[in-house]
C-alpha cells in the first residue's frame, strides 16, 4: 500500500504560524473571520459564533431536544492530507471568558464515521477548546475501505493527528495564543486513538485518557470470528440461546459476589472467581436453568479465546466471567457478537484485508490467515510496548476499563499494561507516567451492574499540571440521575476493599490494598 504521509511537522507549524501571525493580532481573530486562516491541506468551511443557551445538535435523531451550552465559536473544517482523504472535523472554542486555556481531542466509537457532538459539548462545558473528527469517512460500515487504502490510513491514525495540529492552530488564531496544555480523552475506539497518539505522535498531547482501549484491533475482530464460529452450526443456527448468557452471569455472580467482602451484585476480579460453568450441566433433559453438553463446550471456547491452530499460541484473550449478559439492553454482554446473523466486523477481512466482499469467513485458516491479517493490517493496532518518547516528553496516561466489558475484554487491557511495564523497566518506572484502573462490573465504557461513570480527565489534569499521581479514581453508579453508589477504582494491581463499617455504597468506606 502506498501511503501519502504529508502530515504536519514542526516546520509546517512554523510556516503556518507565520501566516497566522500576519492574520491574527495578539488578541486573536474574531470567530467569524477564522475562515481566512490558511493551513496546508485544510479548508475552513465555516466559523460561527454561537451564543449561550439552547443549541440544536447537528444531525440529531428523532427531534432530539436542544442542549444548553455556554457561548462558543464553532469551526467546521475539512482536511485532505492525501489525494483520497476527506477528513471532516469541528473545533469548538469557548468564548474568551469561558476558555480554560486548554485543548482537548475527543475520541470516537466503533469504526467512527461521525463527529462526536456530545463530547464536543462536554468539552465546551468544561472550558476546553475541543476537536472531534469523523476519521475520514461516513458511517460505521467497513465498506468505506474498499478500494480506498488512504482512507484506511486516515482511520487508523492519520486523521486524529492532522486535526489535532490543525485544531491547535485554529485555537491560536482565535484566542491569540496556543493552548497551555493539551489532552486527549476517549473510550473504546477513542481509547485506541489515545494510544495511537501516544505511540506515533508523542508530542501531540501532554496526557491521554484511554478508556476500554480497543488497541489490538485486528486480533479483537479475529476473536469475534472465533467466538461466532464456536457457537454456531454450519447453517448459522446458534448453539447457545441468548438467555443462557444471562444464566451464566447470574450463576457466576452468585458464586463469587461476596469474595471481596461485599455482596453488591458485582464480581470484583473474575480471575479469582472459582465458578465452573460445568456446574450448570443439565443432569438429564435441557431446561432454561442448565447447559447442555453442546452449549457448555461452545461457551468454553469463548472463555478460552482464539488460538493458533498449528502452534497453540493465544491469539487474543477470552472473555471473563461476568461479561456474558447482565441484562441492561443493547450493550448487554455476549449478544453483541454472538446473537447476530454473522460475526461482528467481518468487513475487516472482506474490505481491509482480502479486498473481496464475497470472501468466505468460514474458510479462515487460524494459522496462515491470522499471520496474513497481522502482516497486512498490523498498522491498525496501537500495541507498541515502547512508550519511551511519550514518557521522556513528560506525558501521562490514565487507562481504565470495565471488568464486564462485552466488547473488549479486560484481560487484553491488563496484558497490554503488563507488557508495557515489562518493556519500560518494571511497575515502579511505568507507574511514574502510566496507570491502569479496573472497574468491577462496568461494561463497555458504561452500563453493567457496577459503576457507570468516572471522571478520569480530572485525575489526568491533576497529574500533568500539579504532579499529583492518581492512586484511585472515584466512580459512581447512577439511575435516573440519582447517584446510588460510589466506589474507588484503585491503581492496578491494587483493589478496593470495604473497611467493614459504614455503607458499602460509599467510596469513603473503602481502602485500596495489594492482594497476594
Provide keyphrases for this structure.
31% helix; 3-stranded antiparallel β-sheet; disordered N terminus; 516 residues; alpha/beta
- As a percent range, the share of helical residues equals 25-40%
Overall geometry comes to: globular
Please state the oligomeric state of the protein chains shown.
Answer: single chain
The rounded distance between the terminal residues' Cα atoms is: 49 Å
* Whole-angstrom Rg: 24 Å
User: In terms of per-residue confidence, which ranges show pLDDT below 50 for 5 or more consecutive residues?
Assistant: 1-26
Please, could you describe this protein's structure?
It is a single chain. Residues 1-26 have low confidence and may be disordered. This protein has three domains: 1-179, no CATH class; 219-378, no CATH class; 382-516, no CATH class. The protein has helices spanning 10-23, 117-125, 149-175, 189-200, 217-230, 243-256, 293-304, 335-338, 347-353, 368-377, 388-392, 410-423, 427-431, 456-466; strands at residues 42-50, 53-55, 67-69, 72-79, 87-94, 102-106, 129-133, 181-187, 207-211, 396-402, 434-439, 453-454, 472-479, 482-490, 495-498, 510-513. With 516 residues, it is of the alpha/beta class. It is globular and about 80 Å long. It is built from 14 helices and 16 strands. Helix 1 packs across helix 3.
Amino acid at each position: 500500500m502506498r501511503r501519502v504521509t504529508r502530515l504536519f511537522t514542526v516546520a509546517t507549524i512554523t510556516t503556518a504560524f507565520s501566516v497566522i501571525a500576519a492574520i491574527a493580532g495578539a488578541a486573536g481573530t474574531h470567530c467569524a473571520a477564522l475562515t481566512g486562516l490558511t493551513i496546508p491541506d485544510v479548508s475552513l468551511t465555516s466559523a460561527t459564533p454561537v451564543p449561550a443557551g439552547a443549541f440544536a445538535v447537528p444531525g440529531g435523531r428523532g427531534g432530539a431536544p436542544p442542549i444548553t451550552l455556554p457561548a462558543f465559536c464553532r469551526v467546521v473544517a475539512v482536511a485532505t492530507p492525501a489525494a483520497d482523504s476527506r477528513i471532516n472535523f469541528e473545533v469548538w472554542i469557548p468564548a474568551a471568558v469561558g476558555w480554560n486555556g486548554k485543548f482537548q481531542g475527543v475520541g470516537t466509537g466503533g469504526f467512527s464515521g461521525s463527529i462526536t457532538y456530545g463530547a464536543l459539548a462536554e468539552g465546551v462545558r468544561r472550558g476546553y477548546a475541543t476537536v472531534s473528527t469523523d476519521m475520514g469517512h461516513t458511517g460505521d460500515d467497513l465498506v468505506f475501505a474498499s478500494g480506498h487504502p488512504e482512507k484506511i490510513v486516515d482511520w487508523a491514525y492519520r486523521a486524529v493527528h492532522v486535526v489535532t495540529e490543525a485544531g491547535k492552530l485554529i485555537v491560536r488564531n482565535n484566542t491569540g495564543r496556543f493552548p497551555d496544555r493539551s489532552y486527549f480523552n476517549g473510550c473504546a475506539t477513542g481509547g485506541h486513538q489515545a494510544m495511537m497518539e501516544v505511540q506515533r505522535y508523542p508530542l501531540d498531547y501532554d496526557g491521554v485518557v484511554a478508556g476500554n482501549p480497543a488497541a489490538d484491533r485486528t486480533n479483537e475482530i479475529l476473536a469475534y470470528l472465533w467466538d461466532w464460529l464456536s457457537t454456531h452450526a454450519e447453517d448459522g443456527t446458534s448453539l447457545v440461546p441468548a438467555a443462557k448468557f444471562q444464566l451464566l452471569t447470574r450463576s457466576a455472580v452468585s458464586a463469587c459476589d461476596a469474595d471481596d467482602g461485599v455482596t453488591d451484585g458485582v464480581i470484583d476480579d473474575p480471575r479469582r472467581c472459582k465458578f465452573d460453568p460445568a456446574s450448570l450441566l443439565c443432569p438429564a433433559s435441557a431446561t432454561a436453568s442448565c447447559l447442555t453438553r453442546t452449549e457448555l463446550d461452545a461457551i468454553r471456547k469463548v472463555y478460552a479465546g482464539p488460538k493458533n491452530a498449528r502452534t497453540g499460541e493465544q491469539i487474543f484473550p477470552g472473555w471473563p466471567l461476568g461479561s456474558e449478559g447482565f441484562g441492561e439492553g443493547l450493550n448487554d454482554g455476549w449478544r453483541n457478537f454472538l446473537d447476530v446473523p454473522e460475526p461482528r466486523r467481518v468487513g475487516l477481512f472482506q474490505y481491509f484485508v482480502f479486498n473481496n466482499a464475497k470472501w468466505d469467513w468460514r474458510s479462515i485458516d487460524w494459522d496462515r490467515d491470522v499471520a496474513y491479517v497481522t502482516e497486512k493490517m498490523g498498522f491498525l493496532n496501537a500495541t507498541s510496548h515502547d512508550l519511551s518518547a511519550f514518557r521522556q516528553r513528560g506525558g501521562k496516561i490514565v487507562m481504565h476499563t470495565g471488568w464486564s466489558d462485552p466488547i473488549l475484554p479486560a484481560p487484553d487491557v491488563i496484558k497490554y499494561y503488563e507488557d508495557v511495564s515489562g518493556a519500560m523497566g518494571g511497575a515502579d518506572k511505568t507507574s511514574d507516567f502510566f496507570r491502569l484502573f479496573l472497574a468491577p462490573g462496568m461494561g463497555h465504557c458504561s452500563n453493567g451492574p457496577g459503576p457507570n461513570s468516572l471522571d478520569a480527565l480530572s485525575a489526568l489534569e491533576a497529574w500533568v499540571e500539579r504532579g499529583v499521581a492518581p492512586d484511585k479514581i472515584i466512580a459512581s453508579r447512577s439511575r435516573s440521575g440519582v447517584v446510588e453508589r460510589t466506589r474507588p477504582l484503585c491503581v492496578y494491581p491494587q483493589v478496593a476493599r470495604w473497611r467493614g463499617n459504614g455503607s458499602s455504597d460509599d467510596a469513603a468506606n473503602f481502602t485500596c490494598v495489594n492482594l497476594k
